[in-house]
Amino acid sequence: MTNDIERVLISQQEIEAQVARVGRRISEDFRDRNPIFVGVLKGCFIFMADLMRHVDIRCTMDFMAVSSYAGTSSTGAVKINKDLGQDIEGRHVIIVEDILDSGVTLSYLKGYLLNRRPASISIAALLDKPARRRSDIVADYSCFEVPDAFVVGYGLDYNEQYRNLPYIGVLKPDIYS
Ligand code: IMP
Ligand code: MG
To answer: How confident is the model at residue 86 (pLDDT cuts 50, 70, 90)?
Structure first.
C-alpha cells in the first residue's frame, strides 16, 4: 500500500498538533451551547474520532453519509445515503468533513440542514483545497490547506483504499491515470 504513495504531505505528528488546536478552539467557541457534531461518512471517521477527544464541552454526535464522488473527480451530484437520526431544530450544528474541495458536497449539505432551522451551522474540515473551489463556501475551522493534488490517508480514500494510512500522502499519479 505505501508503495502507491509519492510523498508524505502531512505527518502524523503535524496532524495530531493541528487537530488538538482545532478541538480546543471549538471548545472555546461552543462552551455552554451543547453543539451537535455531524460527521460526514466515511471520510470523517478518523478525524472526528481524534477531534472529539480534544473537545471538552457538553456535545452530541451523529453521522450522515453522502456520495458525490467517483474516482478523483466530483460528479457534481450529491446523494444522501444516510440521514440524521434526530431533530436539529435550534441546535448548533458543526459539520465534520475530511476535505473541502470543490465545495459542492458541503454547500449542498449546509443548505439541506439549514431547512431544519438549526441555531447555527459551522464547518470543520481536516483539509482545505481552495484551488478547486466551485462554490463560495468556507470552512470555519480547518487544520491544513493543501495544494491541488489528490491526497489519501487519515480517512481519505481513493476508490475506498488508503483510508487506514496514519498520515496524509500524495498518491502516485499512475495509480489513478
Ligand atoms: P467536494 O464536493 O468537491 O468538495 O468534494 C468532497 C468530497 O470529495 C470529499 O468529502 C472527499 O470524499 C472527496 N475528495 C475531494 N478531494 C479529495 C482528495 O484529494 N482525496 C480524497 N478524496 C477527495
Ligand atoms: Mg468524503
So the answer is: very high
135 CB near ligand 1 (under 6 Å): no
Distance 141 CA to ligand 1 centre (A): 17
Peptide bond just before 42 cis, omega within 30 deg = yes
Gap between the Cα atoms of 138 and 155, Å rounded: 21
Q: Please tell me if the CB atom of residue 36 comes closer than 6 angstroms to any atom of ligand 1.
A: no
Strands 141-145 and 151-152: unpaired
Helices (H), the chain: 12-29, 45-52, 104-114, 173-176
Is the pTM value of this prediction over 0.85?
Answer: yes
CA distance 127 to 170: 13
Rg (CA), the chain: 16
Instruction: Render pLDDT for 117-161 as a digit per residue (tens, 0 to 9).
Output: 999 999 999 999 999 999 999 999 999 999 999 999 999 999 999
Say whether 140 is catalytic: no
In sequence order, the β-bridge partners of residue 65 are: 41, 82
